[in-house]
User: Fold this.
Amino acid sequence: MARLDLSGLEGPALLPGEPARAPLSSFEEDPEQPRTEIEGSGFEELVEDIRERGILQPIVVVKTKTGMLRIRFGARRYRAAKKLDLGSVPYVLSTDARQWDEYAQVSENERRKSLEPLELANFIAKRMQAGDSKAEIARRLGLTASTITTLLVLVEGQPFIKDLYRCGRSRSPQYLYRLSLLHSQAPGVVEERVAGSELTASFLDTLTAQIQTTSAEPKNQGADSRSERVVEEGAPVETRRKGVHPPSSEKTPLATEDPMRIRKPRLLGKHRGRDVIVVLTLRPTNSGLVHVRYEDDGAQAEVPCIAVTMSQLTESTA
Assistant:
């Protein structure tokens, strides 16, 4: 049974009167269209809905210098009409310059059917090349700065990471971003472990712990044994065991403590109007995030760094 298509209710306002109609040959797709996986998930359902009910929401177009009707909103409906070989489709000619904006095109696609992560990442990369900052892109798309950074791994990440997305091993930018950070530290270990494993949060946690443990292992093992060998045979046992110098009865004077040093830092701030303590002992799952503990109820959460307003750095008395 075909599903009712209500996406048209979210489209741009129509001009007064009945929409015009034109044959499919009069239309052309927008080369700057951010959606590239048009016939992906849900496309066949859209085809069946249009087969049964027709196109309920006209396609929004602009007229090019050659007279072609370039599609601004409605590329999936147009593709469905082509697949059904419809004689003509309804359209509205847009004269509103706001609808020519690329951000508006992305926003409209997101309301109808969310763009695939790679489609959104490609758009973000394109706007950055055009000179837009991450902060501006995040504001205009209604995303956090950390989400922008996470998505960009799909276009800027290692070939290994991009292949995992393209072959369908993982479509989660968050997982692939974490994996990218680990791959930059230990590419061989990551590729070997990923080869036979399902990419889940628990797998990433285990892999992270393994790589951190390996990285933390001392690289100068055996130094003590080498120092023992250079000690004279007649030296006391304690000297051979500890190193070159024999124990002294004199106490080494304590270094003067730096009065500016904070031994137990306590960072205070606000998140959405609530007082928080930044948890400095927990590693965030992604760059741009931070763990906080709310002072009113003690609950903890992981939030974007930019969403926390820092107010005071003090020393804990606990």
